[in-house]
Write a structure and sequence with these properties.
The protein contains 23 helices and 41 strands. By secondary structure, the chain is an alpha+beta fold. The strands form 9 sheets. A 7-stranded mixed sheet has the order 18-17-16-15-14-13-25. β5 and β6 form a beta hairpin. The protein is globular.
Length: 722
Amino acid sequence: MTVEVIQLERGGTLIKTPSGSLQVGAPPETIKDTMKILGDVPDTFVIPNRMFSAERGVSLSDIEFPAYYNFFIKRRSIRVIGMSHQIDTILRVLREAVLGPDNIQLVREYPYGINRDLIPNLRAEMEFLRPFSLSGKRKAEMNDMAIGVPWGPENRVPFGDMALERSKDCLRVVSGKEILAEVSLDVSFGGIPYTDKSGGPFEPPLFGITVIGSGSGFDPKEMTSGFIIWINRRGILVDPPVDSTYWLKSMDINPRLIDDCILTHCHADHDSGILQKLLEEKKINLYTTETIMESFVRKYQSLTGLNYKAFMSLFHFHPVTLQVPIRINGGEFRFFYTLHSIPTIGFEIYYQGKSFVYSSDSLYCPDTFKKLFERGDVNRYRMIELTNFPWHHSVIFHEAGIPPLHTPMQTLNELPEQVKKRIYLIHVAEKSIPEGSGLRKAPNGREESILIDVTPPESNEALEYLNVLNHIDLFSGLPIEKAREFLTLVKVENFKAGDYVIKKNTVGDRFFMIVHGRARVERDGVVIKSYTNNDYIGETSMILNLPRNADVIAESDMKILVMDKYDFLYFIRGSEIARQMKIIAQNREYDTWSLFDDAPLFKALSATQRTQLQGIMGRVRVKKGDVIATQGTTRETFYIVDSGLISIERSQRQILKAGRGSFLAKIYATPRRGMHRFSIVAQEESVIYSIDTMEFYRFLEKNPGVFLSLREARIRDTVQNA
């Protein structure tokens, strides 16, 4: 028997056998890999050891779209093989996406005292759109789409003429006693290949849209639908596709330009990139309804294993109220429920006399609306609301997915020409758009960003500078009254690519804050680090009264806010900033930046995160034999080893040796000091950095991605063995 093992580009493994194909692990969008290879999708999936990647913020067993493909196209259910608790988790996640929430309470999402007739009956609408079972005699249930198959008593499951066997770390395909293939059960997300189309750092427009992807979940040639709305040069990420964080970086769009995210519904092609974005360097604002939010929490809380409080602490949730405008970045947003298989919202935006509307996933079909009304599933108010889609907007993003859950292309083709001129189709493959229809897909990529011409507000320049103040972590504790003072003290300087912003050995008498652009730091011709939007430069020599120790060179055209030394000292008077900056400057002199590069858990930290950590680290020299921490005592401090050798002991027996870059800590789901499970002893003269336990938890609160990564780490992951 011939068995072929194929590593999928996005992660996981495809195994082709004479009895059919199966897949080990299912990171998001691997369906697109198998469709390229097979022209088909496997109907058997083996759950890997880890179901969620904390470092990438994605599921490693995302079977939603494979289940859709097998059910709707192949008319069969998929088999999900795993441990019983794994199967329960994966099917619970799938059920949320397929059938939606059991309990829908929309009254809380509308203005108090609203006429109840204006609140849609989403449960009835969802039931109408719910597909029939494979037999066609009843509405579909979960087992029509997916069947869980637990490992047998001998960790064995039949597979055609062969069998699948599980060990701790691998899956074997066997025939009798012959091992035909052996595949690891440790799966990671490989990411999505990008073509770098960047032309230097991206400068956002006052009002516009950058499309990350406009394809469907079944389109192997494109990313799924998701985009960025720019208002006042700040980004709002809408339904980010998986790996959109890395797409932004490949396009040289600074993720720090984006503070807000909108989730329209909990299908995998709309929510797979959400958690990835939430786990970036700082907390992000998440906007959706309470109903949709509860579905999202149920899905990803199951996968991450976090309790409710810990999961919600990863971001700032802003529940939206239907029919009540809210402001985000200066734009006026109004949200509305669409007609879809699960609760889904669209929205419209008004800004400076121009407007935008997004249908989200929606079945727009007036004939269907009439049918729903005649059945009693919607009342007259809801029928009118669904029928009267706001076609008047300056720019329209409308979905055109596969019926019956999505808008038929014919319906959009029949729209008036003056409307078609303002429509961009999303959630659709290019081949699905009729030639000569006048319809077009939303263009992908930063260079194809749709710019909506608006008159800059009078306060535009001040807003731009205050954005810098607001996004420099160092200033986060300053009172709002300092904003006016900030505007009076800063000066604007522009630099061309190749210009020296700072020259080595010059006097440190100015503080620099980057509005936009990118610069590199060089010492003796070696690039040490780079800085970009909302980063600050030059504080070390200014605070320590030392000459500049490196060159800073503009890599692109730059706009920088500059504050003279004494203006800066005047600005931060009475705050803790001076003390904190001195600590940061001293730690930089000790080259803690290279220490982070050598630390397995910290080398991925951004420049901002490294600076935050430098501000809470204290340098300590210890002698051979010094007891740094004693087993059973309260854990007041965490430690990072800089040099030397540290012994980790339990009951006076050495467990591990820790060298440079080791992080000696235990991270709990909620902040607490806890007890030392081990003793920590210096085996030789060493240098360590101490961090107060609660200070470190405050650092983690600002940086949820770091928190989740450390939560998953075991003690051996935190230690560089010497």
